[in-house]
Amino acid sequence: MVDERNDWTLERNDRRIVFASGADATVFAESTAFRVTRHALPVWKVVLPIGGDVEVGGRGPAAAAPGVVVPPGFAHDCGTVSPYLAVFLDPWHLAPDTRTRLLDRRVVRRLLAALGDIGEHGPEGILDLAAVRAELEAVAGVGSAPDPRVRHALRAASRPGAGGNLRSVAAEVGVSAPRLRALAREGAGVPLVRLRRWARLRSAVAALPGRSIAEAAAEAGFADQAHFARTARGMLGRAPSSVLAGAGLARANAGIDLSDPPACSAEHRCERIPGFGFPIIEDWS
């Protein structure tokens, strides 16, 4: 959870990366095609290619579409063949669902328009995070706000230099650590430890420009640079250095792991849901 707005842009040669984060959403935009390895997030992820398609693979055959909505906790790999924007929303912002939704081009255009001025290579102005959240709520349904004590725990994890343990955070809101974990599960459907890890990851990415990867990791409360890198690979499918490398800011000791995603197995069932305008990939695990 982020209350303060944080925006940055990195440019080098023909590659441009834009990051924006606030209370309504987090957005990461890249002016080139990119592929990420298998990962799972504790939040919603919406991939919006600009003019191309996104390919996403989970436990069944990969599917391609103009856009995709990936639910919290769904392990997948994905890639685009064009510039794209990825929108991340806290799990309670949208109605609970375990299905991965493939968006048609009409819906993708609506979402890109809500974000603001989007050119053929990405954002060309300030991104409207509140508007894209509202548009996604119209598409996928509105979620329920979590317990205020859970929100406090996530804010605490996002503080610069955050490193307090869960017991101390729980004491701040007058409950035990197990009770706070239970409140997160009940309200968000996601383990609190993963939500706190995501909050730190988002804070670390926000701090990358102008800092080394180790400095950004320390500021966000990670134990060290390796801890930051492992979390990024597990939740984003890419190393922090891959964000900075194309912008000429990667450190010499920050290796990039862009290995091929593992093969998928099992099957999904696809169907078209009336009124949504896009098919559904249902996770039957």
- Sequence of secondary-structure elements: EEEEEEEEEEEHEEHHHHHHHHEE
Mean pLDDT: 81
The count of strands amounts to: 15
Strand proportion, as a percent range, falls in 15-25%
What gyration radius follows from the Cα positions, in whole Å? 18 Å
Class by helix and strand content? Answer: alpha+beta
Question: How are strands sequenced across the largest beta sheet?
Answer: 1-2-3-10-5-8-11-15-14
Per DSSP, the total helix count is: 9
CATH H-level superfamily of the largest domain: Jelly Rolls
Biggest sheet overview? 9 strands, antiparallel
User: N- to C-terminal separation?
Assistant: 28 Å
Shape: globular
CATH class of the largest domain: Mainly Beta
Number of domains: 2
The CATH architecture classification of the largest domain is: Sandwich
Helical content class:
25-40%
Runs in which pLDDT lies below 50 for 5 or more consecutive residues are: 247-285
CATH topology of the largest domain: Jelly Rolls
